[in-house]
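Please, structure for the following, as tokens.
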Amino acid sequence: MKNTQSLLKKGLLLKSQQKYNEAIGCFKKIIKNQADNIDALTLVGDCLRQSGKFDDALHYFKKVLALNPSDPPVHANLAALFLQKGQPDQALLHAQKAEAHCGSNIQFLYHYGLILFALNKLHLAANQFKKVLNTDPDHYGAIINLSLIKMLLGDLKSAETMLLKQNKTFPNDYTILLNLGFCNEQQGLIEKAIEYYKHAASTKDKNRLNAYSGQLFLHHYQWHNSPETLYKYHCQFSDQLEKKSVYPFNMKAYSSQKKLNIGYVSPDFRKHPVGFFIHPILKHHDKASFHIFCYSNTQQIDGMTNEIKKLVYKWTDIRALSNDAICHAIHKDRIHILVDLSGHTTNNCLGVFGMKPAPVQVSYLGYPGTTGISQIDYRITDQWADPQGNDKYYTEKLIRMPHCFLCYHPDPQSPSIANLPAQKNGWISFGSFNRMPKLNDHILDIWAQILKRLKKSRLFLKTKAFNDVEIQKRIKTFFYKRGVEENQLILLAHLPSREQHLSLYNQMDIALDTFPYHGTTTTCEALWMGVPVITLEGEAHVSRASVSILQSIGLQDFIAKNPDEYIEKAIQMGKNFNFLSQLRQQLRSIIGFSSLCKHQSFVSTLEHKYQWMWKQYRDHGAQNCFI
């Protein structure tokens, strides 16, 4: 017994020093003499878990459960293990079994918060992190994650205050700088956000390329950046990628497969614009000719995640995997064509694409420009989003769909379209439900000019950032200084349900698109709810998404070539109640019968593009293949 206690004490000391192999040696000596020693079995499992040896750890935890099925510490360890493996559903089951006994343990509370965060249960996760901070006010992980949740809930100033306090203590901490960049981005303070991302990218953190990506993404929001400038910025990114050998491809093995393996990689297989647009594509892929794989880096899973899982041949959760491990999984699956759906947006996997784990690589949907990565071969777009002449702004070869590059599936629970509000109100109601980063001073100034010229008009603005009173004050002050009356501006924050969100369009007569970063989901939603959208056409893809949507449904008259024309169109359309009323009742049918909603036809065309890409590679581009 004395020897057992001595070994246990020594093993715990080694474990606290992260000398896991030596600690395991101590605990195994105990198990050799006492095969049913639950403490020693649990501690071996915990050491293995913290070493990343999940399967071996699971073996020891199962031994404990066989001896005591309700053992709280082992359930706490299993919760942490399944969290690390990217299986939060399983983790939650074990956390709930451990909660009554481990509810005061800081490490358990922190892991519980991470599990709830991964399951998108934001308020519950926040409560767990607050419990951690009540005991340990300086707990780094709890501060970082609670600030992230605050940002996601729109409590931006509070999140920034937390992060700035940490920044004073850790001025060069990568994660704090990255989150400060994201926080300022959500407030619409783009230049400030870019500076934080630059600082984060200058650190030696292994994830610093994510901060570089953050900068590139934000350049699309800046009014002054030309397509040439955006292209130049993105080309510089490729130089930052870690140089690794591309994978060898056994052409005989790839060509012998009866179906093309298409792999989609995204952090947004959830209730997110990418999730909404990719869902009908995955649903209508021809299963007889294609095997569809999804590699998900989705951090907070939800109902849409589970729907998408059911549509595909194979689902791989890559949250807990390194780039090398992700590439290995893709290469092992013999993916013919790998499709990136995120570009330089948050939680992207461009480092994987830089390692070229598939013979053909494609960029699509989730990013409004080039990735700048030479290892990505193609980009899917259309003639309106990227007219002839735009090819020079891409490192990828452009593949143009015959109609709009989007495949739109309207919400089947969409509310009915109400009559034109202006006919009842006697004034026109404009609106924009785009994200705060798109609301730059230039476009706000254009909207202010419209409101000043139509004295009775109203402008509805809705964004999650308006949960923050200080941001509301900033926007109100901007408009009031330009002569807009207080009753002309209605600012709305995030609404809890999608139905409530869509119902707000029944209070709007005309939607005003943002510039330079166009709306996409918001444009489609407005049109589906009977609200026409006025957009300002630019040269780069980022300023042409709404152009493509409007062209595809025949509403070219709502596309302006310059700011003055944008203002005039808003004013003239805003005076024509009869025209707007008639159009309102027709728009849902127009969209429903347009190419935007012809899912099967769209996917069939997309599949032909994929087959062409593979044929090109097989016949001309297989330099890295062996027979």
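The first helix runs from residue 2 to 16. The CA atoms of residues 264 and 339 lie 5 Å apart.
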